[in-house]
Every structure is written in C-alpha cells, then in structure tokens.
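INFO  loader      accepted 1 record
INFO  loader      residues=191
INFO  predictor   begin
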Amino acid sequence: MDYLIIAAISYLLGSIPFGLLLTNLFLKKDIREIGSGNIGATNALRAGNKFIGYTTLLLDIFKAVLPVLYVKLNYPDFVYISSLSVFLGHVFPLWLKFKGGKGVATYVGILFSLNFIYGLVFGITWIIIFLISKYSSLSSLIASLSIPIYLFISGKNQIIFFGIMFVLIFYTHRENIKRLKNKEESKTKIY
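INFO  predictor   done
INFO  writer      dumping tokens
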C-alpha cells in the first residue's frame, strides 16, 4: 500500500505546472500559446521573461527533489517508484489533459536527489553540449544519455532505470529530434 501512496503523492507534486502558473500570474498569458506550447522552463524563457524562465526551472527541479529525497531517506526501497512517478506527473499532468513538459528540469531534480554525482554528470554534459550547439533539446538528449553511459563505465547497477528515463526523454523530445534532423530547431538564449 505504501508504494501506491508514494507513487500518487509524487505524481501529484510532479504534475504542478509551474511554467503555466507563473506565465499566467505575471504575464497574463497562456504558455501553451507561446513558442513550442510546452509548459517547461525553456519555453517559459521564450515567453520573454528570464525571471519566469529561471523560476520555472528551479521550481520544476525542486518539485522532484522534495518527494524523491523524502522517500530516499524514509522509504529507500521505493525511491525509484517516486522518481518515475514525479517525472510522469510533469510529462503527463492530469490537470492539463496529460500534456505537460518534457521532463528535463524534473529529471535534474531526480538525479541530484538520487546521487549528487549523477546530477553533476548531467549538468556538465548539458553545459558542454549547449556551449557547442546552443540547442537546449540536443543538450538535454545527450546529457540524458550520459547517465546510463556513466553508470556502465563505472560498473553501477541502475542502468535499466536510467535507460528507461533516457527513452522517456527521447520520447518527449521527438518533435525536437525531427526539427534537429531538418535543421529547423530554434537555438536557445539562456542569458
């Protein structure tokens, strides 16, 4: 029974659409009608307000840290259930007809909560790829792939979970991948 409660609470926390709430509150706009229509931090930046973009990023990270860290400390056997549930809540929120964000910021929160090194591997990879390409989507895809590669090289045993997470992020970025292939993807300004 505990795992169902943990999954439900993690999902509900993950499903809070901070990008939508903040653009609505401060800009009186619907983020789903801006840029890519996505509710995440990158599209919040496209709304033309860096405060909203970076606040969305931090809140999307924190909404994963809160349940995953709590579960890790109190119910360690269920930490991967919490991690997956909070991610799915962000990507498929009940309140928005299951059309949410792409899950990258939430995944960053999950990574830092599970193992600080995983968060650093992701973050450093993301920054390097972004500095080279200026594509947030490409940076997110390669950084997501870097985690199972790192685990394989270091001989750790959670490769299946992080492989699944990479597949999910690949899925949420399928339109970006098409645009990258066709050289139609927008570059992102983060400063």
